[in-house]
Amino acid sequence: MKHISLSIADPQKRWRVSSGPYRSPWQSRGIPAYLLGLMLTGFYVLLYWFPQALSPLIRSLDGLSIWLRGRSSDQWFLYGFFYTVAVLVMGIRFIRRHHRSRYQVIRTLSVMFFQLGFAFLLPAWLLRLNQPEFFFTYFWPLKGEYLFPETVTSLRDSGRLGFFMVFWGVMMLVVVTPVLTYYFGKRWYCSWVCGCAGLAETAGDPFRHLSSKSQQAWKVERIMVYGVLALVVALTAVLWINSASGGAWLGSFSSVFARWYGFFVGSVFSGVIGTGFYPILGNRVWCRFGCPMAAILGILQKHFSRFRITSNSGQCISCGNCSVYCEMGIDVRLYAQRGEAIRRASCVGCGICAEVCPRGVLKLENAPALRKTAAGGSCAAGENTAGYPG
Amino acid sequence: MKRVVIIGNGISGITAAMHIRRMGGAEVTVVSSESPYFFSRTALMYVFMGHMTLRHTEPYAREMWDEWGITRVQDEAVSLDIHRREVLLGSGSRLSYDNLILATGSRPRRLDVTGENSDGVHTLYFRQDLEQIEATIGRNMKHAVIIGGGLLGAELAEMLRSRGLFVSMIVREKHYWGNVLPPEESKIIETRLSRYGVRLFLEESVISFLEDEGGHVSMVNTSSGLQLPCEMACVAIGVIPETALAAGTDIQVGTGFLVNSHFETTSKGIYAIGDCAERLDPAPGRPATESMWYTGRRMGECVARTICGQRISCDDGVWFSSARFFDLEYSAYGKVSAGGEHSLFWSDDCHERCLRIQRGEGDVVSGIHALGIRLRQEVCERWIGSRMCVNRVVEELQQARFDAEFSEHVFPSVIQSFRHQLAR
After folding, report:
1. pLDDT higher than 70, residue A340
2. Residue B306 Ramachandran class (φ > 0 left, ψ -120 to 50 alpha, else beta)
């Protein structure tokens, strides 16, 4: 009898099968996850309100800051540096994990490029040239102050480049955004360009499955994201009215409003909660519940876009991988098992649902019109794959 | 209102329940002992691998069942009293019905060899099986042997490889999944399995399991005299219909509950769907029993119509199937012969993907196989359903492309190769 010993270590390098996040306490709301969350939120609290506590760290970057920006480091340079390093390092991790999907590789290289080039190096270089520090990849309303009277006036007065910056911001919002969103959906921005997305898709990727998929969360999402949009629109209007009237109409109201908006939305929501709570609430809390830019892009995507995720008729086996790994909390399976195309305002087009699907059911598409589902008789697939009663 | 009782809350039973409620036809009660809520059995492997939790395998929010008016009973259906139209439950209570749908599913087939009942010899079917496999793995073991080379075997291999175990597979056929796949496709799967560190033993069958002093499995013996030491074995050689409820009734049973094209059993008012049903008049080229998610779902839709008064024969449509072997996706539409003869075939140089178009009578397309390439189901269905000429399928092949954006364009070289083959 042949006796086969199986313990010989095989010399050939094996492909690894990775086990999922629910086997790691870091990624499944275990104690380490809470500690990490505490650390991150703690960092944001120090950064925003007690930067002097970070001064050893800030000072340690003086050399780099002087070389890049021609001036010594400050808390925001420290933040930008950490942010960019996180995007690059975790971006490489993401690419290694998803190297077989070219969509994922290219998309991740894109957010890494925009973070390093447009959100870190270019603004630093502008400062070095004594130009206003400007982020060409952020627009109103995400960066609300770019259309506030104070910023617009100071940019306009700073010279031709400043004037171009104002023009750039308006063009991006009014012309480029609707056109690109029409052709590609909101993903051109929300998972290819934006820096918040850059961090969420790279450093936040290990936590993407933690987003809540409940109907309740969806309700809260709609109220909050459009609420923040309404707030920033109102704030911008109030500031311009106040500025036009030379402060006569509204007195100090508008500046108090701006300060509160900055505190609650800018600092607490997008920073402390948005990023600090990655290990608890998932990586897209800000993008999903708070970002006013995402709100506008979402409306465009839902009603004026060719983008959608197509479900491959009846091939869904309801396993739920798509829903679990949707960072925006969309219950993708609900659509997939009915063979329905997915058009949701919140979808950022990251493409992970299509990638984790074990049965090739989902595909991100920019096609002009919905294909008609072929009817193949009384029990045809498509219209009546296990759907809702009633 | 008519009372419908459904035994089994798998995809067949639940699809039937949902469609009956949607048509507003009857009161619906679903009985299951395994789980109080419908869950996706196909997702159990992902729970084991830590990709999701058990709760994620439930496709619908729990509160929806009450909203949809589907009553759930977690209990075992012990026997049927067809004269009084009642189901006897394990708890001793009775459920009366006007129509009964048997969607009892199947159970794992056994090898029937010595040592099969040793500790550490598992199957994977029920939710509870996961716990048992988990308990065995907790014993700090290293070697596992999987018996059976089908879809479940590959899934088990992936599960166990994710925990770093050494995995060997014993497959009866000459090549992997040889009763379904032509040798070229098998070759690609075999390559993928071995890349992931699975040792394949083809043309082997198990003759016995040896156990250690503690009654735990320690060795698998095969027909050719191989002895594979292991601390765990998983038997994945298919399923057999669960028909125990037929006892003491006039429901006729072959391998499954025998049903006509309306899924009516031989007992009036009693239907059977899914894995447990055996069709008396299967569609040409289709087996009488089919344990597949898609088939069960379609049967559920059809039986719901029958019960709600639309007694039309179930159109089986163009058959399709899908599977995954580690990260290698497989999909099939229509009929492809397991020998691979009379077909167009393309595969890439590194054995990672292939595409096959079966040429039927009159040179129309009769089936399509894809490995590592995603195809648009609706397009393949249309081609096969309308009996499109193979020449035209080749020319229009791009329409079926469903691979992700930016993925490698294999279609130009596929089409070129197919044109060459057609010209010959």
Report:
1. yes
2. alpha
- Comparing A282 with A3, which gets the higher pLDDT? A282
Token digits of residue A218:
């969806």
**Average confidence (pLDDT) over B355-366:** 94
C-alpha closest to that of B38 among B19, B54, B21, B26: B54
Helices and strands: H and E segment counts in chain A: 19, 3
Residues of A in contact with B324 (CB under 8 A): 358-359
Check whether A369 has a pLDDT greater than 60: no
Output the pLDDT for position A368. 75
Closest CA to A355 of A22, A112, A105, A113: A105
**Yes or no, beta carbons of B227 and A376 under 8 Å apart:** no
Q: A213-260 pLDDT, tens per residue?
A: 999 999 999 999 999 999 999 999 999 998 888 877 777 888 889 999
- Do residues B357 and B368 lie in contact, with contact meaning Cβ atoms separated by under 8 Å? yes
User: CA B201 to CA B416: how far, in whole Å?
Assistant: 36
Question: What's the DSSP call for residue B375?
Answer: B
Percent of chain B exceeding pLDDT 90 equals 91
Question: What is the rounded CA–CA span in Å between residue B156 and residue B171?
Answer: 14
Of B40, B61, B402, the CB nearest to A317: B40
Nearest 5 degrees, angle CA A247-CA A249-CA A251? 55
Say which CATH topology domain A306-365 has: Alpha-Beta Plaits (3.30.70)
Break chain A into its structural domains and give their ranges. 35-293, 306-365
Residues of A in contact with B196 (CB under 8 A): 14-15, 17
Q: What was the pLDDT predicted at A3?
A: 57
Task: Select from B51, B60, B69 the Cβ nearest to the Cβ of A324.
Answer: B51
- DSSP class of B37: S
Which pTM was predicted? 0.92
Tokens of B135: 């308990």
B86-92 long-range CB contacts below 8 Å, 24 or more apart? B87/B5, B87/B7, B87/B31, B89/B31, B90/B33
Q: Are B220 and B170 in contact (CB under 8 A)?
A: yes
Q: Which domains does chain B have, with CATH numbers?
A: 3-107+240-307 (3.50.50.60), 121-237 (3.50.50.60), 320-423 (3.30.390.30)
pLDDT of residue A372: 46
Q: Treating both helix axes as pointing N-terminal to C-terminal, what angle do A75-97 and A31-49 enclose, rounded to 10 degrees?
A: 150
Q: What are φ and ψ of residue B172, in 5° steps?
A: -75, -35
CA angle A90, A92, A95 (to 5 degrees): 110
Q: Does residue B196 contact residue B326 with C-beta atoms inside 8 Å?
A: yes
| pLDDT score, position B5 | 98
Q: What are phi and psi of A300, to 5 degrees?
A: -60, -45
CA–CA separation, A229 vs A293, rounded Å?
8
Structure tokens at A123: 């603004």
Which positions in chain A touch B59 (Cβ < 8 Å)?
A: 318, 320, 333-334, 337
Residue pair A167/A156 in contact by the 8 Å Cβ criterion: no
> What mean pLDDT value characterizes chain B?
94
What type of residue sits at position A276?
G
Per-residue exposure over B53-78, b if at least 16 CB sit within 10 Å of its own CB, e if not: beebbbbbeeebbeebebebbbbebe
Q: For residue A155, what is the enclosing H or E element?
A: helix A149-157
Answer for the pair A130, A123: CB distance below 8 angstroms, yes or no: no
Distances (CA, A) of A107 to A181, A201, A206, A297, A349: 16, 10, 17, 18, 10
Cβ pair B404:A215 closer than 8 A: no
Q: What mean pLDDT is predicted for residues B224-248?
A: 95
Q: Say which of B11, B50, B298 has its CB closest to residue A379.
A: B298
Q: Is B136 helix (H, G, I), strand (E, B) or coil?
A: helix
